[in-house]
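Customer escalation, tier 2.

The customer says the design service returned an amino acid string that "doesn't look like it belongs to this structure." They asked us to rerun it and document both sides in this ticket. The original structure tokens are below, unchanged.
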């Protein structure tokens, strides 16, 4: 209640995007799902302490395509902004005392260790709830905190496979086709952040803490809520198409179609309209109802017609006739897209170690404004000393903890970002 009242007072003083200012978060997260969820909270002003092992979290030492900027992992940079680092050996009794002290003044704990690990470390929900009954405790897992898969490794690609997501894309004779990015991880992160904010709102009204459980499996099924509902209620889902159809339940045309010199994506348009504007005698024999029942037939006809003109010619034609279409952009085209630039979703700033870095910004605008980055992604233990001083530890006590190897402290000063465009 006290922290949320601080937020309200701050927002009354001046408009800004710091809606979660005053909310304190302890993040025991690594890889993608957990850090990305916490970053969403940090972007909105939450005071986040990233609790990581002494040598640093996993994402500091791996990056897709070996993408490093001055030896700094871009995988780490993309999901750890606006956070402070406390590098600590959680297996020690001294570390437990430190964490318990922090928990007393913490609003939210987010963790994505395998189920059971936090309990073994002494930081499970039941233990921390004894210290802080109003605590919001969010666990992010692969399959859930219990059940037959509780010991299985949970990771985006594995969940895409197990959840049925791979069975939806591609053409009829293609092998199972994964989505080419970590879509389940990111959706799971958004759901975790949503669960935390919902629990915080409930605590404001009731004064009660809450345990929030979030899993990648549920996130993957949530992504398929439309297609799965059709299967559950009809008992089947159509086969993948041999032509351009992009889903197993939409009417034709609905997909990516080859043109004379490239590809173009075309979405729902009544077949009667298509027959008219394309002057197609063949399509004129079909009705809108046929677009479902005879969707493969219609799609084959439409696919052949699409090969008769260039992509640019189709774009001009479809614009005139108000047919839903979109270019098939690669990343080079995406970053130059005028709407992408307008939305300020990609930003550039100078990191003290990595140098100039470009990343995807917080996806939501508030009061018409994009969120600005406040804090650099921290070096390992960059704020260890600062955090312990804030919680009453003396210089002598901190020095002893460092000398005993219980915490790690970085010497780098955390300046604010120099540029953000």
């Amino acid at each position: 209640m006290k922290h949320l009242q601080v937020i309200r007072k701050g927002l009354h003083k001046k408009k800004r995007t710091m809606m979660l200012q005053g909310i304190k978060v302890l993040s025991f997260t690594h890889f993608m799902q957990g850090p990305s969820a916490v970053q969403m909270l940090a972007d909105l002003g939450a005071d986040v302490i990233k609790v990581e092992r002494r040598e640093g979290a996993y994402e500091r030492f791996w990056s897709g395509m070996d993408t490093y900027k001055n030896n700094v992992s871009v995988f780490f940079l993309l999901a750890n902004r606006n956070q402070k680092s406390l590098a600590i050996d959680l297996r020690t009794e001294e570390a437990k005392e430190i964490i318990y002290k922090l928990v007393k003044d913490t609003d939210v704990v987010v963790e994505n260790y395998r189920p059971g690990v936090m309990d073994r470390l002494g930081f499970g929900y039941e233990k921390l709830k004894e210290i802080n009954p109003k605590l919001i405790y969010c666990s992010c897992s692969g399959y859930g905190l219990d059940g037959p898969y509780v010991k299985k490794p949970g990771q985006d690609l594995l969940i895409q496979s197990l959840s049925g997501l791979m069975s939806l894309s591609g053409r009829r004779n293609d092998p199972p086709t994964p989505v080419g990015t970590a879509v389940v991880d990111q959706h799971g992160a958004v759901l975790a952040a949503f669960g935390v904010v919902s629990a915080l709102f409930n605590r404001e009204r009731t004064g009660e803490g809450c345990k929030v459980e979030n899993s990648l499996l549920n996130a993957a099924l949530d992504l398929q809520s439309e297609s799965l509902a059709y299967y559950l209620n009809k008992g089947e889902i159509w086969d993948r198409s041999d032509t351009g159809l992009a889903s197993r339940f939409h009417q034709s045309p609905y997909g990516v179609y080859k043109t004379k010199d490239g590809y173009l994506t075309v979405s729902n348009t009544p077949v009667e309209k298509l027959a008219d504007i394309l002057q197609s005698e063949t399509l004129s024999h079909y009705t809108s109802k046929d677009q479902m029942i005879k969707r493969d037939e219609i799609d084959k006809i439409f696919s052949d017609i699409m090969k008769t003109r260039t992509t640019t010619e189709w774009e001009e034609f479809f614009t005139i006739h108000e047919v839903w279409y979109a270019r098939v952009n690669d990343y080079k085209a995406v970053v130059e897209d005028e709407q992408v630039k307008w939305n300020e979703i990609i930003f550039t700033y100078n990191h003290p170690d990595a140098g100039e870095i470009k990343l995807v910004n917080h996806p939501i605008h508030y009061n018409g404004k994009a969120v600005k980055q406040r804090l650099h992604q921290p070096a390992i233990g960059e704020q260890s000393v600062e955090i312990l001083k804030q919680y009453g530890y003396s210089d002598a006590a901190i020095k002893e903890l460092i000398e005993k190897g219980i915490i790690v402290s970085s010497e780098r000063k955390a300046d604010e970002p120099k540029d953000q465009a």
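Tier 2 assessment: The sequence is consistent with the input. Confidence is low (pLDDT under 50) at residues 10-15. Residues 183-206 form the longest helix (24 residues). Sent an explanation to the customer and offered a walkthrough call.
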